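Q: Make up one entry.
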Amino acid sequence: MTDWYTENRQNKQLEELRDEMARASSETWTLRSQLSQLQGGMESRLSSLAAAFDAFVELSDIRYELIGFADAAEVRRHAGQVLSALASGDEPPAPGRKVAGYWLGPAVEALSGPASDDLAGGPLDEAMALDERRTSIFLCLALAALGRRNQVSSNWLNTAFAALAPDGTVTRVQRALWTAGARGGFGAEGLNMIVQRLQVPETASAERWLAAVESRSDLDLAPAPPFPELVDQVKTRARLSRLRAAVETITGDTAVLEPDRDLAYGASEGPDSDSTSALLRLLISEGSEPERVPLARITELRARIGGANAIGGGSIDDPAGTVQKLLEADLRRSDEPHLAAAALRVVTAGVVAGAEELARNASRPTPNQVTSEIEWQRITLTPDGPEAQSMEWAESAIVGKVEPLSTGDLVGPFTTAAAGVVIAIGLSLLHPFWIVVGLAVVAAGAYQYLKARKRKAAEHADAAARMGRLREKSAEAAAELAAYTATDADRAASIATDLEELRKRLTA
């Protein structure tokens, strides 16, 4: 029996060595192919190739050092097999050799039990004693991805999520727990805890979130206000309507009533590097405590060798972004209703405060008088009609620009006519032809006089027409103001309804 066990273990180690050789061969091929892909001058190409070669040499040395951790590697391989089997409903494989001091083995053993059993005791206690945080993260993510949210302990979730950084930065594991909770992985109680953790003081500000929420509305933008004094009132009224429509869109999506299918293990194999499945694999790949640093270095070296084609890497504690930016992104995503609904819960206080401010501005009474530019004149308008004094000033300004026929206007025509008379009389003794010339010049002077009078008459007619249009347009604008003022009560009632509906949906 002992010989069989020794031989079997040696066979496993040989198989692992063959796998290592295969990976080394693949990376050697990658290294060789880089020379043909490198761009730039010869010096930069040689420098890049030398760096990749150095990384390959170091990678080979580290791999040689990790041969002694074959049992830990087997535990990680077994963890992946157990998760895949549980996700597909198959019987999980039996646990292999235990590794002293490694939390993953007992954590996987605790997870392998029936979904109806309590995980407490035995292997779970052992895993918690070895590494409480990583065990809590593993169980929370794994149980959420396997649809066993009823087995997630609030204590585990509290330990796994931990406290946010002082600057509001969220780590990759916190983001994964956040999205898992939003997608229904931890039930209502678990999501409530995550929402409370994300409600840092900065998330209570109002204006930050209004634009993000409003972007989910399909309503048209605010119409052009009829008067400058009503710009803020009309704009805020339209924003409140858009805000209500957006909140109804987010909270009315029935998809959030059921857990998201993307939460399932292996369901989100796409570009989301912070999905539940991706973080589980990253957590498992960290390795045991003694090999954690060299394994991280291997990932870094592979990235250096593979360049842009490198896959994976990083740590569960790498930053995923700030709370504010992630919340804004989630609120705008129409393809992620679970994340949008959870984000809206986090920023409820800010959105309610913003809605109340919009309602106050939109409900203000219409001003008793407004100004409007009509016929290039500033007219003061009231619901009863144009203000008399401003109309007098406007009409005076229009009439004042038109002057009667002046001496200056007559100098030219009279001078021309006088010259014609002189020519006709003075030069007629020389030849009768000059009489004709003189009369022609007199006629030209008369034409200039008639033209000047006609121009002045046209200016007076234009001024009269402008004053007519001024009175007509002023009366129409005053009537428009009166009609708008008459809707104050209805508008206030509509605003109150919108605000009440917003509060109801946001605080439900």
Residues 433-486 form the longest helix (54 residues). The CA atoms of residues 366 and 385 lie 15 Å apart. The chain has 20 helices and five strands.
